[in-house]
Design brief:
Length: 330
């Protein structure tokens, strides 16, 4: 769907399509344990979180140079633009790369190179969000933020991702305080697999401004009331929820109930190469499976721009919002 929208929940490592993975593997002399793009494409049909993570981390081995990261981001931005994305706030996981011996500067400068030419190349404005892997230690997160200091001009916010259960937000209090002191905005994954309490902790202990996923708030009416009253944006990823079995079928997704409750929902793609589609595909899928009407779809798009970190460019936000109002559905 070409409805103008902002993508607010997108892991750049999760946009690596099989064709690019093979091209980069060849260029960098990395041997992938797959004979062909077809065989690799078949591996993308995983059926649980662990097989997804195994594949996800195995394929990262092909990303070595600044040029690799720039190509990855450029390919995503081209796809996103073709599906109506006008603004993208992009997550990256520096620890997944530094652990393989790739310097953080290579990652950030490579991504930054693609992002800084994105408006001209694709008509998409961008922000970059540095995420900490929550299954690693708080010390590792602090070290990562420290290593990113020379590149802060390229970074708008920090986030928290990877395996949620057993790694509550409070574990990262100190690094979020440090990020606040550096003037960075804050988001965190919470309430995808973890309990509603993790959403509260992300708000109260980490001071986040948006919750990534947040689905499980629906188990806690008091929390829902608070999220509505404070207009806390939730970055939902419907196709991801189905692939990772957070919901059984898209038709069971709580999005309509969440919208009806007045929650500030947005629709995003998470790891689109792996989860069956980009932002526009997610909009198409929920429109079909949940019978969302034009006004609900328009609300989702409006919400995405309202939740975007565009406070330093309100003129642009207003322009995007006007595009949403002017859009005609087919
Ligand atoms: Zn995510």
């Amino acid at each position: 769907m070409h409805l103008p929208k902002a993508e607010l929940h997108l892991h750049i490592e999760g946009t690596l399509e099989p064709e690019l993975a093979f091209a980069l593997a060849e260029r960098n002399g990395v041997t992938l344990p797959y004979a062909s793009t077809e065989e690799l494409r078949a591996a993308y049909e995983f059926d649980d979180l662990q097989s997804f993570l195994d594949l996800y981390y195995a394929l990262m081995a092909v990303l070595r140079t600044e040029e690799d990261f720039a190509e990855l981001a450029d390919a995503y931005l081209a796809r996103a633009a073709a599906q109506g994305v006008r603004h993208a706030e992009i997550f990256f996981d520096p620890q997944a790369h530094t652990a393989r011996g790739v310097p953080i500067g290579t990652v950030i400068e490579g991504l930054g190179r693609a992002l800084e030419r994105s408006e001209e190349s694709h008509g998409v404005s961008t922000r970059l969000i540095l995420c900490f892997l929550r299954d690693l230690s708080a010390e590792s997160a602090l070290g990562t933020l420290d290593a990113a200091r020379p590149y802060l001009h390229r970074i708008s916010a920090v986030g928290l991702d990877s395996a949620e259960v057993g790694h509550p937000p409070a574990k990262f209090r100190e690094v979020y305080e440090a990020a606040t002191a550096l003037g960075l905005r804050k988001v965190a994954h919470a309430g995808e697999e973890g309990p509603p309490e993790y959403i509260r902790e992300a708000l109260d202990v980490l001071g986040v401004e948006r919750i990534d996923h947040g689905l499980r708030c629906m188990e806690d009416p008091e929390l829902v009331a608070r999220l509505v009253a404070d207009r806390v944006p939730l970055t939902l990823c419907p196709l991801s929820n189905v692939r990772l079995r957070t919901v059984d079928r898209l038709a069971d997704h709580p999005l309509p109930a969440m919208l009806a409750a007045g929650l500030h929902c947005t629709v995003n793609s998470d790891d689109p190469a792996y989860f069956g589609g980009y932002a526009g595909d997610n909009f198409d899928a929920v429109r079909e499976a949940l019978a969302l009407g034009p006004e609900q779809l328009r609300t989702l798009a409006r919400n995405s721009f309202e939740a975007a970190f565009l406070d330093d460019d309100e003129e642009r936000r207003a322009r995007y919002l006007a595009e949403v109002e002017a859009y005609t559905f087919d």
